[in-house]
Specification:
Distance between the termini: 155 Å
Structural class: mainly beta
Number of strands: 32
Strand content: 35-45%
Helix content: under 10%
Number of helices: 0
Shape: elongated
């Protein structure tokens, strides 16, 4: 109602506030049945502007005990901080950390959609785990959010899942290599290891067993059990090895594990390898030979063992040039030299080729390698070829010449060697008066 003379009147309406993220909303105030006036604009539009922020989208962290042969999944919860009148969507995908897709879990990706106005603001992402029985450290992987519509990500938009390993630790034992002494006892120390610390005591039984080594002769048999207190990763088993001076080759015995408690056996046996230090030494000897002028000569290279052996001993050999040349001064050779059981001396025959050339002393080598059931402290022998031809003889012949009545004439002396020489030969010459006088009867000369 407008009193007489009034031009404005007010209507006060109440707007109900909320925290719902929603579009701007409108309603109208409609005027009807005017009395004493006409309606120019019969309606007024009221717009209620939404001042509520878009909801936050969060994903939680999870922890799950790893399955041991059964099925299991990780369920990541994705939630809105409050309902929304809009459709809210977000993309997701798993990512590796210590856990690896395809080995520890099955990767997934997709999108979550929150319908408008729902009061249930939580959805889940299911990630199947891959079960195993391998003892390993706890591992983790994650699910990441992105591409949010009508919402924004809380934090980095990543949730992480920790897979707690429920498999028992494994026990392993490693081979031991040691050198046998000539007498007394020596410990072979076997290390037993747990793959991871255990919350409870772990025990395992052990015993020794013969391989090529024999209990009582080569080692002292032993049986017992090993205890790992909680948190312990390493324990030892000691086996005494008996020294001797018999050359017998490397020998082995076994340490066997059985009946583990609160663990499983990853490696149930290990070898003790006793390296024999009593093997004979192979001793090749240097040699010398005088070469022939027309026929080959056989050189004999002696190879000795420092002691007899109950085993067959072998060693490879091959000739190598030094100043003597293969195919010119000697016949090259290579092969395997074999000592039968009990033998201590063998020889290698090498053909020295004939050579009338005077060339002095020459040498070549014989190299040894790859000994079997013996050691090789010196791997070469030196062969010396002594020349049989000696130094050549140098001669010069007398030369007669007719004097002539006038002028000068040339006189040529010829020097000869008794045989060719591989080394340079030189001689100094000079003229000396006898009955002819230099400067009167001939021109003096000297040189080399």
């Amino acid at each position: 109602m407008f009193p007489v003379g009034a031009q404005e009147r007010f209507i006060e309406l109440t707007v109900v506030g909320d925290t719902l993220h929603e579009p701007d909303e409108t309603f109208v105030v409609r005027l009807t049945r005017p009395v004493g006036a006409t309606l120019a604009i019969p309606e007024a539009l009221v717009t209620i502007k939404d001042d509520d922020p878009a909801p936050r989208i969060r994903i939680d962290n999870r922890e799950i005990t790893e399955c041991s042969g059964g099925a299991a999944s990780v369920l990541f919860t994705v939630s809105l901080s409050e309902p929304s009148a809009h459709t809210v969507s977000v993309d997701f995908a798993t990512f590796d950390e210590a856990a690896v897709a395809g080995e520890d879990y099955i990767p997934v990706r997709g999108a979550l959609v929150f319908p408008p106005g729902v009061t249930d603001t939580e959805l889940t992402i299911e990630v199947p785990l891959i079960c195993d029985t391998t003892d390993e450290a706890d591992e983790s992987f994650g699910a990441g959010l992105g591409g949010a519509v009508n919402g924004f990500l809380e934090g980095d938009g990543r949730g992480r899942a920790r897979i707690v390993d429920d498999d028992p630790p494994t026990i392993s034992v490693e081979d031991v290599l040691l050198t046998e002494d000539d007498q007394g006892l020596k410990d072979a120390v076997f290390e037993l290891r747990l793959s991871s610390p255990a919350p409870d005591e772990v025990t395992v039984e052990f015993t020794t067993a013969d391989g090529t080594a024999h209990a009582g002769e080569d080692y002292a048999a032993v049986t017992g059990h090993v205890l790992f207190p909680p948190g312990t990763l390493l324990q030892q088993v000691r086996v005494q090895v008996i020294g001797d001076t018999l050359p017998e080759g490397d020998e082995t015995f076994l340490v066997l594990l059985a009946n583990p408690l609160n663990a499983t056996l990853a490696q149930p046996a290990a070898r003790g390898i006793i390296q024999d230090d009593d093997q004979p030494r192979i001793l090749p000897e240097d040699f010398a030979v005088v070469e022939g002028d027309t026929e080959p000569v056989t050189a004999h290279l002696l190879v000795r063992l420092s002691r007899t052996s109950p085993q067959v001993v072998e060693v490879r050999f091959a000739t190598l040039d030094d100043t003597a040349r293969a195919g010119v001064d000697y016949q090259p050779d290579s092969g395997v030299l074999r000592f039968e059981r009990g033998e201590t001396v063998r020889d290698i025959s090498i053909q020295i080729l004939p050579d009338p050339l005077i060339e002095g002393v020459e040498t070549f080598r014989v190299r040894f390698s790859d000994p079997v059931n013996a050691t090789l402290p010196d791997d070469e022998a030196l062969g010396t070829v002594v020349d049989s031809d000696g130094a050549p003889v140098l001669t010069v012949a007398d030369v007669p010449i007719d004097e002539g009545d006038a002028g000068v004439r040339s006189l040529v002396f010829t020097f000869r060697l008794s045989a060719p020489s591989a080394a340079p030969v030189s001689v100094v010459y000079t003229t000396t008066n006898v009955t002819a006088l230099s400067g009167v009867d001939y021109v003096a000369r000297s040189g080399a």
